[in-house]
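Dear colleague,

As promised, here are the two records you asked about, laid out in our usual form so they can be pasted straight into your sheet.

NAME FIELD: protein one
SEQUENCE, THEN STRUCTURE:
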Amino acid sequence: MKLSSLLEKLDYTATVGNSEKKSDPEKIEITEVINDSRKITAGCLFICVRGANFDGHTFAKAAQEQGAAAVVAEADVDLPEESTMTVVRVKDTRYAMAFISAAYFGHPAQQLKTVGITGTKGKTTTTYLIRSMLENAGHKVGLIGTIEVIIGDEHIPSSNTTPESYDLQMYMRKMVDAGCDTVVMEVSSQGLMLHRSQGFIFDIGIFTNIEPDHIGPNEHKDFAEYMHCKGMLFRQCRIGIANADDAHMEQVMEGHTCKLETYGFNENADLRAENLAYIHKPGELGVFFDTTGLIELHAEVPTPGKFSVYNALCAIAVARHFDCNPQEITQALKKARVKGRIEMVKVSDEFTMMIDYAHNAMALNSLLSTLRDYHPSRLICLFGCGGNRSKLRRFEMGEVSGRLADFTIITSDNPRFEEPMDIIHDIETGMKKTDGKYIEIPDRKEAIRYAIENGEQGDIIVLAGKGHEDYQEIRGVKNHMDERELIQEILDERNGQGKN
């Protein structure tokens, strides 16, 4: 592939080495696009990207020595005076990498309907709802998000909510080759800030909600920057769909260039929910509601609370643009399940147990407040906190559970390189600011066993923090641990079917 083809949508200068002599990208053949210095090959285009721990610019000389045809840089690179390797100078190599990657993989987004979802909460659940809805209507849908990437029957565990632009374009290429006609993806504020989702225009961009989060070193300097980065999606999409009830919607949408639609309970929303009612049966929590405005239907969602309505409304708003009919939409809403997101696990006819990823105070507060609306006999919360992370999170989560749950089981999460009991004692500090009752059981399986064996009629029991994760990280090792399997082992042992 000619270097000029990879650079066609970028402003750049190309020189021979660090000289002022111009290089001609039309005459340079590129064999591969590489952004990892460990993978440099002869004839490749190496993109010098600055990371948190490494600066790709320091590897420009190594790229030349290994036969790279060219490097892309945003700063001066150290090369011998006699170097004949082409140096492409751009303003921002991450931004450039997105467009180069799109060209390298043949602009796959142009062959897909692209749906991007940003927001503090609800992204993961909503991507699965939309995928379920569109597949129910006959579309073949790829998914990219926090839990996994789905391409046909292939499920690839995720390391970032929004992959690096090269990986994102590669996944979309694979989706096109696998016969997908649509991709639904989570678009994080970090991903937007680092230009991972550049290189194409989304057909639909979605804003779910925003609250202060991801603010600190290596993330966002303040809430204003966080909102600004979320809003970047709406200058990169054709149709924007936003939560009209969010207090910061107008600020996030400032400067948007898309056609904008809204959803919510607000009477000014284009798609509105009304007649909300709760479903509460043993082992099952959910909601009924009606919609009016852009589309009218009666919906049932098998997950609890008002935020489930918001997720569903958002999915309905998207499905409308794919010509899904009300029957297809309502069937999909009934069937949709998301691993580790208010995931119901059938244990008893007497009480309800669920697994959820709530792993900070904001998420736990939202979850427990929602479950309070179902008037359980007791609300039981089992959780721990991650090691080598902020102690403040532990104090806050302890205080939230102590205030909102009737009983808390404090256990271990991912202790990493800390002692589990040190983390548990930090959580206890927050608990003691409340009158909440609690017990400490460091072994997570034994903590779950305690919850099951002491469950009472009408209880709602939440296993919080692990969600979709199937491991427990201890001293640098990720040991297999899936709460679903732990629950089944406990039930088998109680029924006399356990291992001898």
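NAME FIELD: protein two
SEQUENCE, THEN STRUCTURE:
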Amino acid sequence: MFAALSSIQYVYFIGIGGIGMSALARWFAANGRTVAGYDRSPSALTQTLTQEGIAIHYDDQVEAIPLVFRENKATTLVVYTPAVPVNHSELVYFQQQGYTIQKRAAVLGIIASSMRCIAVAGTHGKTTTSSMIAHILRHAGVDCAAFLGGITQNYQTNLLLNKNLDDQTFVVVEADEFDRSFLQLHPEIAVITSTDADHLDIYGSKEEVANSYTAFAAQVKSQLFVSLHTHLNQSAKITAQTVPYANLPFATDKGIFATHIRIENAKFVFNYVASAHSIENIVMQIPGQHNIENAVAAISVALHIGVAPAAIKEALATFGGVKRRFEYIARNENMVLIDDYAHHPTEIEAFLTAVKTLYPKRKVTAIFQPHLFSRTKDFYKEFAVALSLADRLVLLPIYPARELQSDFPHIRAEIILDLVTAKEKYLVPDNEVVEFLKNKPNDIIATIGAGSVENLIQPLARALFV
């Protein structure tokens, strides 16, 4: 066990239902710690944690903290996320009582430092890419842990547990750029999938976003794979070997890329090309040019650490993707319902392009919920362009998450809707979407977003696929 955590017997999470926090909670529980926590509301993740024996409550009250945590301050670690308000009663209590308190990212950094860390950062694609890498390693029999930002279809979890814990064991980590969390990591190998501007409420400018990715790159110990469209500060002292990758051939003989991309039997197929290796006829279950690019990065990492090309090809053919990333929810001869977590314009464009590539002659209805007032303010024009790829747009009101409408009095979903050029476009309250679509002809339906739009998925499936 880690020296920094060796004396910790109890771990309490504030915001335990988050995808990253829940993985840490399960890791500590699997390693013999007593774990409990608070979250704002129940979810599928908190239900799973409860079923695994982790106590969770949903009222911000100090009295709700299990007594064992309040009686054992010296051996209790408190973990929280930056999304927790500074005036959160339980957080304030732990601060006033002098508990050991760490952000989620710092704790993940401590865990990752004890193993051979493979970190995947980027505005888009990091969940799928890190999940691909973890699946390839697991399929090839390489001992590894994985802390992922989504629920993998293959393993139905966001956490893979390693068998051993030593300096030869790999850990695959999704490196989150929010609040500069990824700067807690010093990986042996890293992938940066993209550096598009996001979280400008945190960073302030796209230049500062790039600077943070550059700082992350400078912490890589061994080898760094950087995508073709990634922009880093070239004057920075990046000591790791840098290799660009993409889903298209480069103009020079440098770089790693895919070629001969085609669709066969409704699946994407491609060849992988690098200076030292080539792998032909790789079949992907998950669609999209963007996922081919993710696969190129994952293949490159696996080859770098010695996984055989044949094992990589076999693994990718069985990779089922990640929940809420181009996830088929229901389909019959007349309709298809697909769900995707996309909440940035670039992600939405990639997702809708993939949908229309697979279904070129069918009409697409996009149900989108903007996530955060600040992101809507920063990217409403780009959202409108991406959503105009749909034949019909059903736009939901903005999901505020950690933000308050009063801080953004003039930001509404209508500023996106006004600029969308789709043939049909509607602003519909969340609780009216199902009835709205029941009364219309439907073909391909896509639910898109990172907020409560997720709660519409099963009601739509029940109402439309009878």
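A couple of things worth noting about protein two: Residues 335 and 442 are 7 Å apart (CA to CA). Residues 289-304 form the longest helix (16 residues).

Best,
R.
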